[in-house]
Each structure stands twice: as structure tokens, then as C-alpha cells.
Amino acid sequence: MNARPKKSFGQHFLHDKRYIERIVSAISPRPNDFVVEIGPGEGALTWPLLTAAGKLTAIELDTDLIPGLTAHAAEVGELNIIQADVLKVDFTALAHRHGVARLRIAGNLPYYISSPILFHCVEHAAAIEDMHFMLQKEVVDRMAAEPGSKVYGRLSVMLQLACRVEPLFYVPPGAFRPPPKVDSAVVRLIPLPPEQLPDADPERLYAIVKAAFAQRRKTLSNALKQLLDSDAIRSADVDPKARAETLAPADFVRLAKLPV
């Protein structure tokens, strides 16, 4: 395949075999794994993943790419293509429909909607074994950032409360066609077991994290004044004068568990 990348879909096709091999090695697909690839593009990752697992489900929005993928798939293995916006795909239902406990998800994500895709996957984390994504390096840095870092924020907290985040390696622009204007990185996400998940209302937790980071320079007492007063914040062993970027993910969980 030699498709023309579409700017509207944020397409940058991976072509460097060295990095393709490193990504597939990191995923380490096993026979009979239920692998789901988001955005197969020209099939750079599709074919080695399909060869290793024997079958693969790919989610592709661009209808122009599907005929080429389908034509080549017959020579490799069983490829099921879902033509859809990944944000509308119910991963939990997909796992149930195929009678598998958990999915293994991989993909070179469109950078302009990477965060919504990550949050969407996290919503279905109970049905996912692991995720391996190619993302903008800046996003991976934010995902794995620790408290106190300049890039630590809402994405860091919400992902780290749901998954173990493991940055793996960087990928230069030249590995893609066309080369993006940013560096890329591969990251592994492993959903946490149920006993390690936050024991707080998810909507309340999200609201507190979102409000806390909405204006980073504000103290928590100011940022959360519509949700919690200073005394309540203090009762959770959190300093009301602290700023959001200094709090560990567990601190936000304690805030979310306070009585409304």
C-alpha cells in the first residue's frame, strides 16, 4: 500500500522497519490473543501483529484504506475491520461479543485526538489487558509525569489512577511518512487490578481533578471553592494553600471521598 496521508485524519504512516520491530517486540503478541489495532493505516503494525496472533481486529475511520488492508490480509491471517470512529467503539461490548476476557489494544494514534482516545480506553479498562500506543512525545511525558513536574496535570492523574504507565522509547519524525513536526514515543499502559483502583465516585473524582488543574496558579482553596471549602480540604490531609501540581494522585482520591 502507498496511500496518500490525509491531514484531516492526522495521518502519519510509520514506515521504518527498525521501529516497527521494536513496537511489535514490546507488544509481544501471542497466538490467540484478541488484539485490537486503532488506526492501522497502511498496515505497518497490522501485518506483524496479525502474523503473530493469527487474527486481529482493526478500527479504521478512513474508508479509502480499507480495500488495501482487506486485499493483503488474506495472505496473512484473519483480519476483521471495524469502519468507525474509535471514540464510538464499545470495547467492553466487543470483548463480550467475542467471548474474551480482555483485549490487547495497540495503535499509532492520531495526535490531535490522542487524549480523548486515552480517556475512552480507560473507561473500558476492565476489559483491557494492556495498551501500546505511539503518541506525541509531549503527551507521553505528561502521562508519566510525577507531582511537581511542569507537565504534571489532569492527564497524569487520571491515567495513573487507572493504569501503570510505562514510557518505552522515542521515535524520530523520519520514521513516518510524512514526518510529523514533533517527536513521538511509545508507551505501555497496564490497567490496575480492581483492588488498586480509587474507591471514590468517578464523576466526583474527575470534577475535582479538572477543577484543580483548570488554573494551575491558583491554590486549591481557590480552585476548588465551588466543590470544597478550606476546612474540608484540610480534613483530607491536604494543604488548602497548595497547588494542584504538588498533589499525588492519592491526594485527589481523598478529596473526592469527602462528604459533599
From TrEMBL:
<dbReference type="InterPro" id="IPR001737">
    <property type="entry name" value="KsgA/Erm"/>
</dbReference>
<dbReference type="InterPro" id="IPR011530">
    <property type="entry name" value="rRNA_adenine_dimethylase"/>
</dbReference>
<dbReference type="GO" id="GO:0052908">
    <property type="term" value="F:16S rRNA (adenine(1518)-N(6)/adenine(1519)-N(6))-dimethyltransferase activity"/>
</dbReference>
<dbReference type="InterPro" id="IPR029063">
    <property type="entry name" value="SAM-dependent_MTases_sf"/>
</dbReference>
<comment type="function">
    <text>Specifically dimethylates two adjacent adenosines (A1518 and A1519) in the loop of a conserved hairpin near the 3'-end of 16S rRNA in the 30S particle. May play a critical role in biogenesis of 30S subunits.</text>
</comment>
<feature type="binding site">
    <location>
        <position position="60"/>
    </location>
    <ligand>
        <name>S-adenosyl-L-methionine</name>
    </ligand>
</feature>
<keyword id="KW-0963">Cytoplasm</keyword>
<feature type="binding site">
    <location>
        <position position="39"/>
    </location>
    <ligand>
        <name>S-adenosyl-L-methionine</name>
    </ligand>
</feature>
<feature type="binding site">
    <location>
        <position position="108"/>
    </location>
    <ligand>
        <name>S-adenosyl-L-methionine</name>
    </ligand>
</feature>
<dbReference type="InterPro" id="IPR020598">
    <property type="entry name" value="rRNA_Ade_methylase_Trfase_N"/>
</dbReference>
<keyword id="KW-0808">Transferase</keyword>
<dbReference type="GO" id="GO:0005829">
    <property type="term" value="C:cytosol"/>
</dbReference>
<keyword id="KW-0489">Methyltransferase</keyword>
<protein>
    <recommendedName>
        <fullName>Ribosomal RNA small subunit methyltransferase A</fullName>
        <ecNumber>2.1.1.182</ecNumber>
    </recommendedName>
</protein>
<dbReference type="Pfam" id="PF00398">
    <property type="entry name" value="RrnaAD"/>
</dbReference>
<keyword id="KW-0694">RNA-binding</keyword>
<feature type="binding site">
    <location>
        <position position="14"/>
    </location>
    <ligand>
        <name>S-adenosyl-L-methionine</name>
    </ligand>
</feature>
<keyword id="KW-0698">rRNA processing</keyword>
<dbReference type="InterPro" id="IPR023165">
    <property type="entry name" value="rRNA_Ade_diMease-like_C"/>
</dbReference>
<feature type="binding site">
    <location>
        <position position="85"/>
    </location>
    <ligand>
        <name>S-adenosyl-L-methionine</name>
    </ligand>
</feature>
<feature type="binding site">
    <location>
        <position position="12"/>
    </location>
    <ligand>
        <name>S-adenosyl-L-methionine</name>
    </ligand>
</feature>
<feature type="domain" description="Ribosomal RNA adenine methylase transferase N-terminal">
    <location>
        <begin position="19"/>
        <end position="193"/>
    </location>
</feature>
<dbReference type="InterPro" id="IPR020596">
    <property type="entry name" value="rRNA_Ade_Mease_Trfase_CS"/>
</dbReference>
<comment type="similarity">
    <text>Belongs to the class I-like SAM-binding methyltransferase superfamily. rRNA adenine N(6)-methyltransferase family. RsmA subfamily.</text>
</comment>
<dbReference type="GO" id="GO:0003723">
    <property type="term" value="F:RNA binding"/>
</dbReference>
<keyword id="KW-0949">S-adenosyl-L-methionine</keyword>
